[in-house]
Specification:
heterodimer, A: 113 residues, alpha/beta, Transcription Regulator spoIIAA, six-stranded mixed β-sheet, two-stranded parallel ribbon, B: 152 residues, alpha+beta, Heat Shock Protein 90, 28% strand, globular
Chain lengths: 113, 152
């Protein structure tokens, strides 16, 4: 699970460097978020600009990551492709997350594992 | 292992093992087939979502290991994509699932799959015959479609 970490106005930015967030990688994604969020920063912005496809397992993993972070550290989502946006919209999970239309301008942090 | 049958521009037949990695490989082949046929992006997205949910459900729940076989056929017509998925795993009747609209505030981590399938697929039909699960459905495609020329 490739991720790049950044900082943007106090937020921790996690850019997912994968083209698919699906059932095959959902568990690895949650583990990687757990590792990445030892870095400070609030809120956590998940940049999905490279993700072309997400299924319900990927969505479930994002919800799991949100619950992992807890209410004091909101998880926000950025840069959804049309297919990913469709899954959020159909399930109405776009009402739960703050969704940024564009990727945040982030200062790069040292590479995640 | 995935195996795709001889190339036709309007028919895609392939099979894969019941592992999530195989399912992903097969989905990428489907995506390539639909793109090559110049299917509009919106319908490729729908097909990708439906098939990802159907195939990963079979891989995770239909078989007890990753050596089961899943067969897929997609036929392109001038205004629809017809699809059939077959497997010899456990019987599973989808008629009972996916009818309820998700309640986002419950923050569930699962249970969205069949709702997505029902939201996007038309004429979803399930039959169990001779130890085989057969699921058929179709996805409508825009009327003015480049395939109209191909299909004739």
């Amino acid at each position: 699970m490739q991720m790049a970490l950044g900082e943007s106005g106090g937020a921790l930015v996690i850019e997912l460097r994968e083209t698919r967030l699906d059932a095959a990688v959902a568990i690895r994604f949650k583990d990687a978020i757990r590792s990445a969020t030892v870095h400070p920063g609030n809120p956590v912005i998940l940049d999905l600009k490279r993700v072309e496809f997400m299924d319900s397992s990927g969505l479930g993993a994002i919800v799991g990551a949100m619950k992992l972070l807890g209410p004091e550290r909101p998880l926000e989502i950025a840069a959804l492709s049309p297919g990913v946006r469709k899954v959020f919209r159909l399930t109405r999970m776009d009402t739960v997350f703050r969704i940024h239309p564009e990727s945040p301008q982030a200062q790069t942090l040292p590479a995640a594992e | 292992m995935t195996y795709r049958n001889a190339a036709s521009p309007t028919v895609f037949t392939a099979c894969c093992h019941s592992s999530l990695d195989d399912v992903r490989a097969l989905l990428l082949q489907v995506d390539g087939f639909l793109r090559a046929a110049q299917t509009p992006a919106d319908w490729i997205e729908d097909m990708n979502i439906i098939l990802a949910e159907v195939l990963s459900n079979i891989a995770r729940h239909g078989y007890c290991d990753d050596t089961g076989r899943i067969d897929l056929e997609i036929r392109l017509a001038d205004n629809e994509l017809r699809c059939r998925v077959s497997d010899t795993g456990r019987p599973f009747d989808p008629n009972a699932v996916g009818h309820a609209t998700p309640e986002p505030e419950l923050l569930r981590e699962g249970g969205y799959g069949w709702f997505l399938i029902r939201s996007l697929a038309r004429a979803l039909t399930y039959r169990r015959a001779m130890g085989t699960n057969n699921l058929t459905f179709w996805v409508p495609v825009a009327c003015k479609h480049p395939l109209a020329d191909l299909v004739g």
